[in-house]
Amino acid sequence: MASATAVRPVVSALVGPVSARPRPLVRPVRPDFRLCDLRVPPLTEPQLLARYPHMIPGTLRRDPVANKNAVDIRCACGAVRIVYTSDLFHVRACRACKASGK
Fold it and tell me: Which residue of 20, 50, 85, 93 shows the fewest CB atoms closer than 10 Å?
């Protein structure tokens, strides 16, 4: 039969010293890391024109109220509409053509 002293070193080897602090589950973040560093820089006007041919060249500007980039697009009917660059991928028509279902 094993004595209590024979079991004690095995238990302490598994548990560790009582004064040991638990290790954190996640790695600490670098002190110079900021979440804003993860943002993708906005596209330039030539890049936007290459992706969205319905955009009118030379109309890229900053909207200070909404804090977004805005551009003008030309609809198939010839009307001009102002949209934000974040909406360029799904807006191609003016409001009148969209309402009429063209």
Answer: 20
3-state secondary structure the chain: CCCHHHHHHHHHHHHCCCCCCCCCCCCCCCCCCCHHHHCCCCCCHHHHHHHCCCECCCCCEEECCCCEEEEEEECCCCCEEEEEHHHCCCCCCCHHHHHHCC
Encode pLDDT of 7-16 as tens digits: 555 555 555 5
Q: What is the three-class DSSP state of 70?
A: strand
Residue ranges per structural domain of the chain: 41-102
Tens-place pLDDT, residues 45-70: 999 999 999 999 999 999 999 999 99
